[in-house]
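FIELD: query
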Amino acid sequence: MGDMDNRPFFALVRLGLDLGGEDFSYVLAEAQWKEVMDMGYRQSLFGVMMDGIARLKPKQRPPRELMMRGMQMLMKIENTNRLLNRRVRETVDFFEKEGFGTCLLKGQGLAALYPNPMHRMPGDIDLWLTDGRERVTDFLRKRFGKVEAVYHHVDCPMWEDIEVEVHTTPSWMNCPVTNGTLQRMFDGWKERTAKVTLPGEGEVPVPSDEMNRVYVLLHIYRHLFQEGIGLRQLADYCMVLKKGMDDGERRCMAEQLERLHMTRFATAVMYVMGEVFGLPREMMPVEPSERYGRRLLDEVMRAGNFGRYDERIDRRKNATEAGRFCQRIVRGGRFVTDYPRETLWMGPFKLWHYVWRKRHN
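FIELD: result
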């Protein structure tokens, strides 16, 4: 689909997220509906898109056969969300009984902000244990045997049906000075968690709104450099911003973004917030930038969810570690003029991280 053809899909997403905007005024042929529904799948917003379709008049909806396929897919999404919510509950309970402080990152915690939490296309479980890397890693190795640790998380083989990443810190930045600033922010935020209710499973701890305004944006930033980012992650961020903030919170966030050298990226994301989701300007912490935002939106629409549909990425299973390293450096290099600090520090960080992993595993 070309850029102009994305508008019906964007309109359905806005309807599905209850973001208002224009009425759905498009008349689509069956082939166009297939493209729209395929885009919903590639961007991991299929459930949201179907919620938008449900709000259309019957004569505006896709042909019956496509609707039936869509409803079947929607049932699968709901069943996976039920399983994932149960696994989140069990995972949080397990670690809390072992005396760890827990905080559910992204995923089901953000799904709770959606008009229909059961229709957000689910992923895995990211759980932040706030008790320090050494204690967390030692416990996981005693309990689960040999586990692979990277700088910010440990893969934890708790369940056969759901992947669990146990975070020792929520995220990182390539530049060591900026990363130090970020880690100090996380240290302050870990004592101020909030609660959300998972459908059928009760309350679980999640980051505060203040942390999520920065952390979810940083998650998008990280994946842009690595393998790509899709509209689901941007929809997550839209739901975070939709909660609103007062003038003091807006000034605080603007200061935090400056300290992390993320203001320019935030202006690009705000363009997408307005262009795709119709988020009002008063809910944005910074002014949107069409210059940087258009480029970001082009990347998002080309790559799909986590870059899975980006033909520029070599996904061969036999690709060497050196080959993957070079590929990511080349990918990140495309953004050097937009975001030079993180881009230029990417190579040194990855080399340092390679040595760190060898020493800690």
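FIELD: remark
The chain has a mean pLDDT of 90.
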